């Protein structure tokens, strides 16, 4: 088998012109595809931004609610502790005062 030998030809201005015209239509198609990809990616990033904002809002509301619940718990615990302390004091006073009154 013999290999075909291709002779190099001189490139003329007409050949260069045809090549540039061929590239021009390819570049227009490429530019269109790039602009479509750009708009698609922009929509995707906008969607992601909206989702992140929604999650951020939900978390901030949950944190506020958690803070309120902790405050309520602390208030209730303090009032329970205060009640227990007062109850103990009353029991001590009753034990000191009532036996004397019964005599």
Overview of this protein structure:
The protein is an all-alpha fold. 87% of the residues lie in helices and 0% in strands. The chain has one helix at residues 13-102. The model has no long low-confidence stretch (mean pLDDT 81).
Draw up the topology in text:
Elements: H1 13-102
Calculate the mean pLDDT score and round it: 81
**What percent strand?**
under 5%
| Tally of DSSP β-strands | 0
Helical fraction: over 70%
Identify low-pLDDT runs. none
Our Rg estimate from Cα atoms comes to 43 Å
* Total DSSP helices: 1
* Main beta-sheet annotation: none
Q: Per the principal axes of the C-alpha atoms, what is the gross shape?
A: rod-shaped
Q: Look at the helices and sheets and give the structural class.
A: mainly alpha
Order of helices and strands: H
Brief digest:
The chain is an all-alpha fold and 103 residues long. The protein contains one helix and no strands.
Name a few traits of the molecule.
103 residues, mainly alpha
């Amino acid at each position: 088998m013999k290999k075909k030998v291709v002779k190099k030809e001189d490139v003329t201005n007409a050949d260069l012109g045809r090549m540039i015209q061929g590239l021009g239509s390819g570049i227009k198609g490429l530019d269109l595809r790039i602009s479509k990809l750009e708009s698609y990616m922009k929509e995707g990033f906008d969607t992601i931004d909206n989702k992140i904002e929604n999650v951020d809002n939900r978390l901030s509301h949950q944190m506020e609610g958690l803070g309120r619940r902790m405050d309520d718990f602390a208030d209730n615990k303090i009032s329970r502790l205060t009640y227990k302390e007062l109850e103990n004091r009353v029991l001590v006073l009753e034990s000191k005062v009532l036996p004397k009154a019964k005599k």
